[in-house]
Amino acid sequence: MSTERIVVIGGGLAAATAVAELRNNGFAGSITLLTAEQHLPYERPPLSKAVLLGDKEPESAIVHDRAWYDEHQVDVRLGARVESINRDAHQVLTGAESFTYDRLLIATGARVRTFALADDSGAPVSYLRTIDDAVELRSHFRPGLRLGVVGGGWIGLEVASAARNSGAEVTVIEMADLPLLGVLGPEVAAVFADLHREHGVTLLTGAEISAITADGEEVRVTLADGEHTFDRLMVGVGVQPDTDLAQAAGLEIDNGIRTDDHLRTSDPLIFAAGDVANADHPVLGRPLRVEHWDTAIQHGKVAAANLAGGDVAASALPYFFTDQYDFGMEYVGNTANGYDRVILRGDVAGRNFTAWWLQGSEVVAGMHANDWDAIDDVRRIVGSTVDPDRLADEKVALSDV
Ligand code: FAD
Predict the structure, then answer these.
(1) I need a surface site. Which of 85, 225, 248, 316 has the fewest CB within 10 A?
(2) In this structure, CATH architecture of domain 114-235
(3) With helix as H, strand as E and coil as C, how does 117-143 read?
(4) 298 in ligand 1 pocket by Cβ < 6 Å?
(5) Residue 48 gets which letter from DSSP?
(6) CATH class of 326-400
(7) Which ligand 1 atom sits nearest the alpha carbon of residue 321?
(8) Nearest ligand 1 atom, CA 299
């Protein structure tokens, strides 16, 4: 048995993947996982989909059950919020205990951005990040509930979809001219706007909130066109990386915990993974921090390899998916460096198509909408250089592009 000690801070998918991968790879030292939550580590995508729809129990999101941790000799501590890292002593401290590490993984994820309310005591306002948030939000769903959703991003739209399914009257309030405009651009963002309008959602776009007031029973949102009254407001205005611990420990921070492409922080004994890590990306040639389910998995695997002394770079391109009503999509790539052309193939009005974002002849991102067989082509084509006219020509099969 090795005497190496690895400590993992976090109770999300990056942490759960890392500990599993350490054991899968034969790491024989001690592993301790410390999570602030009272649940075993879990994944979050079902919280705004199957759990909110009532199709699955919240516990279905848990990655490994307690027996798995026992069997794999992973000491998992719930309700164990790490309060500080002593890098000189190689120790992390919770309120009650200290844990010594030879290598440390920080996978503290992200926390929701909150919205200042004029009166927030007992206000009917919800956020969605944790299992407990999902259970709480779902408990309010009922036919006729007037639900306001602040933010037309992925979480806001998935909540709108689940709430409509339970018969709520849903209004989405979005600052931009279309939901998801920043991520998808006008061509594809319009598809999501149509989807939600067709399902009876009121979309208020270009909407700037000047005040939110609540009286316990109702919540009122003031926009330029007047006051909108709801029984409940769900706020989905993004997250911020949970860097407090790392910052207090003196690690380099810049839009998350900065790491090299091996997920190593400015302290060579400490790694960071998942939503919290802003990691050099060897393919994109710049640091990248994404808040995606797949990145938590990929980072968890890479971190596990390197925590155990390996030499692996995190080079996967970002991958994202969503499910809303009967519409599903998968997206690969990243357009943060810009794009100059969008190519749509297939039946856009019927929401069965592929979309491609190009910079010159390089395909920087691609997605399919309800065309599940296309994902292999999307993965193959994104990141490569193509003849844009052939990609745009629907007579040329994707497999021949
Ligand atoms: P997290 O899941 O945030 O986990 C971090 C954990 O660390 C938390 O349990 C936290 O309590 C714990 N922690 C923080 N500080 C401390 C501390 N000091 N001590 C101990 N523990 C601490 N992505 C997609 O690609 N597709 C989707 O459809 C999708 N849907 C989503 C739906 C919802 C509702 C949410 C919230 C996210 C969704 N995501 C989706 C994003 C995806 O879930 C995240 O990218 C992923 O959860 C990141 O995993 P993580 O392990 O890095 O962090």
Answers:
(1) 225
(2) 3-Layer(bba) Sandwich (3.50)
(3) CCCCCCCCEECCCCHHHHHHHHHHCCC
(4) no
(5) G
(6) alpha beta
(7) 26
(8) 52
